[in-house]
Amino acid sequence: MSLEPVVLFFVLGLAAGLLRSDLKIPGSIYDALSIYLLLAIGLKGGVKLAEQATPGMLLDGVLIIGAAILIPLVAFPILRYLGKLKRADAASIAAHYGSVSVVTFSIGVAFLAQAAQEYEGYLIVFLVLLEVPALVIGVMLARYGAGQVRWGRMLHEVFFGKSIFLLLGGMIIGYVAGPQGIAPLDNVFFDLFKGALAIFLLEMGLVAAGRLADLRAYGVFLIGFGIVMPILSASLGTAVGWMLGLSVGGTMLLAALYASASYIAAPAAMRIAVPEANPGLSIGAALGVTFPFNILIGIPLYYWMAQTIHQIGA
């Protein structure tokens, strides 16, 4: 399969940043695109949820979240004892990798659309639900045995920060309105989605190029971690998706969710809850290594993994 075209916009932005081009996306446009993408994804998930919601989804949700909790618990000792990072830095990075990336999920959806592959639309719900456990575990790992945590402020930042608020709000609107109610908005929120995502990825490429410098101190280890950890997490997601009986597309999306690392909600929450952690390491690894790996290599790899496990299990 050819490379998803929107990914090439990320490569263009990355090249512009590395070559020190004067290309810049105005901050107001970036903010507007972020709001648009989050709302569009939330609306689409809400519509799918209205079409597909069943009582069995509750048990699926418990298993998906329960398995996802393993990711930061596995990442932390690797970072702490193999990478020899400080406790705060290891906990913060583990929280970033236990959390999820809405943009990676969006690219996974675009990939499946290009492949004409169906998927379970309610997986959008886990974009919201998977954010919280990893952040709480990250704080607990950082604070084990010492210090105070401003839980109220951190949880407010998680639930009422822009990303979760818009995703959850869009999902509720989509669910309440249903497919017929949202149909008049299709041209704005669904037909223009890939174009907006392409411009957003151009900016993400520029940002990722700027974050690569943050990895110098722990360069080799963090680069390796930023590649190996998402593959391990995706393997877990593939196994869980298959065991739950998800489609190939749904299995791939769950693998991509597990493999992704947050660079929107997690940095905001960790800034409040674990202020002594170095954000350059966590954001540098998540955005400078794992994000480009996932969209260039990871998503096609996870699709292959999903196809393979379904063929073996058939």
Automatic annotation (TrEMBL):
Coiled coil: none annotated. The keyword Transmembrane helix applies. Pfam families: Sbt_1 (PF05982). The chain crosses the membrane at residues 62-82, 94-116, 122-146, 158-177, 189-208, 220-244, 250-269, 281-305. Keywords: Membrane, Transmembrane, Transmembrane helix. It comes from the Bacteria. The keyword Protease does not apply. This is Sodium-dependent bicarbonate transport family permease. It comes from Candidatus Thiothrix anitrata.
